[in-house]
Amino acid sequence: MEARAMAIAASLFQMSSAMGVNEPLSAEDKVIKLPGQPQVSFEQYSGYISVDKMKQRALFYYFAEAEIDPATKPLVLWLNGGPGCSSVGVGAFSENGPFRPSGQMLVRNEYSWNREANMLFLESPAGVGFSYSSDNSYYGGVDDNMTAMDNLVFLQRWFEKFPQYNNRDLYIAGESYAGHYIPQLANLMVQFNRREKIFNLKGIALGNPVLEFATDFNSRAEYFWSHGLISDSTYHIFTSVCNYSRYVGEYYRDSLSPICERVMSQVTKETSRFVDKYDVTLDVCISSVLSQSLVLSPQQVTERIDVCVEDETVNYLNRKDVQEALHARLEGVTKWTVCSSVLEYELLNLEIPTISVVGLLVKSGIPVLVYSGDQDSVIPLTGSRTLVQRLANELRLNTTVPYRVWFEGQQVGGWTQVYGGMLSFATIRGASHEAPFSQPARSLGLFRAFLTGKPLPEAF
d(Cα 86, Cα 129) in Å, to the nearest integer? Predict the structure, then answer.
């Protein structure tokens, strides 16, 4: 795997050198003011970065500088999952960006992560959100390798456009299928730096991430059972007759067996379509936030109960005045969607483990945080905790912070454990699959500790 990454990095180095692109900081990318936006003191930019020689593919970004003293704050690249879902729509405008749509207006998010960092949200790969390929054939069979390569080229070009961030401390954070995107991108960056050091990568944070298919997906049965969503008998058949990883593998191969179909029918019946699997305590959903997770839960039943009265983010980003303010355009589609309607992602990439890539990063000196919203049954904390513990054992990392509680404000924020000062696991109490949306204050507290490298608070 490392040899493959080095080969890819070498080809990218040659490609980037041959392109010779030296785009100046473009005034056209500066966002003067978004429609309905309250007055703010920080700068915003958004626009496109071309990522191929023929300029047929361009990735769209939204960048919100830090609220205070951006010149000294780190740079954080945020990636949402799917695969194929928007970091602008889900991340920036629903989770940890500076604003959230409310009717015709934007309201401030008091727990925005740009309180602590310069936040760069990237819609990737091409075909997601406002990102596009003018060659539609690209959309067929996009995979993890293609995504990682384009993301690397994007960052190179973005630094050329924003040279003041060239040597800035850089972190990458994200959630869900970004458990594939982020380690693969970070590994390419480490390999690329051996030829030309341009990425000052200081750490990665992975929220409710897909890291190892069988462990992550099969932990769902225990989570359902322990939270009262399924019976003892259904738990037994869900762990012995047909587990969830087998079901998903069969589903995406169009080879669903009768036995798995019967098991999942029983699981679906007991868990109920009226319970949000991404936050088992939530009564209602926000569809723009949850759409990125649907690929992780293929639907056996075509009928869906939509309890979302309105999707503010979708409405806002489909306004022409908003698109003009963002310097965005629709290419090959008639509507902006949270998750791509044109991208045909290689979904069996789900089965490729990335926990081993996380191990390579730790051995390279890159700190890694894996965090879990503890109300998520899609990628439950039990699977993530097992994988982190297993990796720590493989790397022979001693426990440097024993499993303990951490606080945000005067409440328990979650639990944490740290291995060798390099590999960390943390839960966010009461949080869903999309932790910054459901527990914004606790997520911001965890993010702050991650950036500073300080232990999570033991007391209040």
Answer: 5
- Confirm whether 327 is a catalytic residue: no
Separation between Cα atoms, residue 242 and residue 264, nearest integer Å: 8
Q: Which of 29, 276, 311, 376 is catalytic?
A: 376
**86, 176, 288, 293: the active-site residue:** 176
3-class secondary-structure state, position 372: strand
Which pLDDT belongs to residue 20? Answer: 42
Which three-class secondary structure string do you get for 326-363? CCCCCCCCCCCCCECCCCEECHHHHHCCCHHHHHHHHH
Among 131, 433, 438, 443, the one annotated catalytic: 433
| Per-residue pLDDT tens digits for 151-199 | 999 999 999 999 999 999 999 999 999 999 999 999 999 999 999 899 9
Of 19 and 57, which is predicted with more confidence?
Answer: 57
Ranges of each domain in the chain: 27-211+346-452
Please provide the average confidence, as pLDDT, over all residues in the chain: 90
**Does the annotation count 291 as an active-site position?**
no
For residue 412, give the 3-state DSSP assignment. Answer: strand
pLDDT of residue 303: 36
The question of whether 176 is a catalytic residue gets the answer yes
Q: How far is 215 from 309, CA to CA, in rounded Å?
A: 35
CATH numeric code, 27-211+346-452: 3.40.50.1820
pLDDT for residue 274: 73
Q: Which stretch of DSSP H or E encloses residue 171?
A: strand 170-175
